[in-house]
Design brief:
Helices cover 41% and strands 14% of the residues. By secondary structure, the chain is α/β, with parallel strands linked by helices. Strand 3, helix 3 and strand 4 form a beta-alpha-beta unit. The chain is elongated and about 85 Å long.
């Protein structure tokens, strides 16, 4: 076959987004910022945007609220009448709660401030596009709204997370050991469970053990089991984690907390794929287990300082994956906010429907040292104490113990009424 006859494999086209905005400078900046993720088309007015959508279908629209001529809310209503499956994301410099609520009621799928962080913007546009695609594919009786966000979307849609999910999917079909690294609260156990669910072992058990929490004298009993009378207090036979996870997945969290003696015993099982209960006279029994380990410490450094066995490290370091901290993927924060709002509004029987644009900006800019876990607890607390339909910026700042930028700092206690310090 000649080179001319060979089939050419072309890359998938980038999704198209129509930006309807009268700010020429902003449109130019958006074109550059989004060029790696989207094919950007520009319409400088609502009328031109509607004309473009009537000529050809464009699945995603980024629409300005404040424009001369036809206002954004009117354009939104006409787009919805033209094709309700088009995903419309509103874009404005104004932080008006009433406008946000009205836009959502009229069919907008999201609402973003100007200016907006590029990662946040890309993630929210991808989310809006996928939501519209799900609506088009799903029959009317089974369509679900934003409150149904779950699974992969919950844990993120940033570029780093899409790459992580891609590796997880490819690893899922293999029995290879996976090592998840990342800060506390990033969701490592969630990824381990997702890997199990995507694997051929999904019908088998998923067993999780926190190695740092295992009593030093009972580690082998917890992992490998024991027979009755094997040691003082062993009043009956007990199956260990490996036997309990047979045909499934064993998740060993905080593997760095396992003492050296436990590391040696674990290495033996990973090498031989057999276990022998403490006190058993039977020969070691084979186990079919896929091991996923997790750590919030640098195992390379622990190996260098002889606090972690090098041979065990390489047994675990088959498919290494790093879960990035939340501050490194701020574009995922709105997805988490949406998910946790729906989750805890139902759980606490609250009528909270969302957050204001200003409040979301604060949530996206906060560093989140506790990562996703801290964000979830923060939103759960806010929803439990809220009596308003939208969480505002004051409530968020209070929950995060952040100072109010519009409030002057209180006078020092040593200042007196005449303005001078005490002498």
């Amino acid at each position: 076959m000649s080179s001319k006859q060979r089939l050419q494999v072309l890359p998938d086209p980038l999704p198209r987004v129509l930006v309807i905005d009268d700010d020429e400078g902003l449109c130019t900046a958006l074109t550059v910022a989004l060029e790696d993720e989207f094919t950007v088309e520009i319409a400088p007015s609502g009328a031109e945007g509607l004309a473009r959508l009537q000529e050809e279908p464009i699945p995603l629209v980024l629409l300005d609220i404040r424009m001369p001529g036809m206002p954004g809310l009117e354009v939104l209503r006409r787009i919805h009448a033209l094709d309700p499956t088009i995903a419309v994301v509103m874009h404005t410099v104004r932080h008006e709660v009433a406008v946000v609520v009205r836009a959502m009621q009229d069919g907008a799928v999201d609402f973003l401030p100007k200016p907006c962080d590029v990662d946040v913007l890309c993630a929210r546009l991808h989310q809006a596009l996928r939501r519209a695609q799900r609506r088009r594919k799903a029959p009317p009786a089974t369509r679900r709204g934003p409150e149904s966000v779950a699974g992969e979307t919950v844990l993120g849609d940033s570029r780093a997370m899409r790459q992580l999910w891609d590796i997880l999917r490819r690893a899922a079909d293999t029995p290879a050991t996976v090592l998840l690294s990342g800060e506390t609260g990033t969701g490592k156990e969630y990824f381990a469970r997702a890997l199990h669910q995507m694997s051929p072992r999904h019908a088998g058990p998923f067993v999780a053990r926190n190695c740092a929490a295992l009593p030093s004298g009972l580690i082998e009993s917890e992992l490998f089991g024991h027979e009755r009378g094997a040691f003082t207090g062993a009043e009956q036979r007990r199956l260990g984690a490996f036997e309990l996870a047979h045909t499934g997945t064993l998740f060993l969290d905080e593997i760095s907390g396992l003492p050296l003696a436990g590391q040696a015993a674990l290495l033996r099982v990973l090498q031989e794929r057999t276990v022998q209960r403490l006190g058993s006279e039977r020969p070691p029994q084979p186990v079919d287990v896929r091991v996923v380990a997790a750590t919030n410490q640098d195992l390379h450094q622990l190996v260098a300082t002889r606090r972690f066995r090098e041979d065990l490290f390489y047994r675990l370091y088959v498919i290494p994956l790093t879960v990035p901290p939340l501050r490194a993927r701020r574009g995922d924060i709105p997805l988490f906010v949406e998910h946790f709002l729906a989750k805890y509004a139902r759980a606490y029987n609250r009528s909270v429907q969302g957050v204001t644009v200003a409040a979301l900006e604060v949530l996206c800019q906060y560093a989140w040292p506790g990562n996703v876990r801290e964000l979830e607890h923060c939103l759960a607390r806010l929803i439990a104490l809220s009596d308003q339909p939208l969480l505002d910026v004051a409530a968020v700042r209070t929950a995060l113990d952040l100072p109010d930028p519009d409030k002057a700092p209180e006078a020092d206690l040593e200042d007196v009424e005449d303005g001078g310090p005490l002498q």
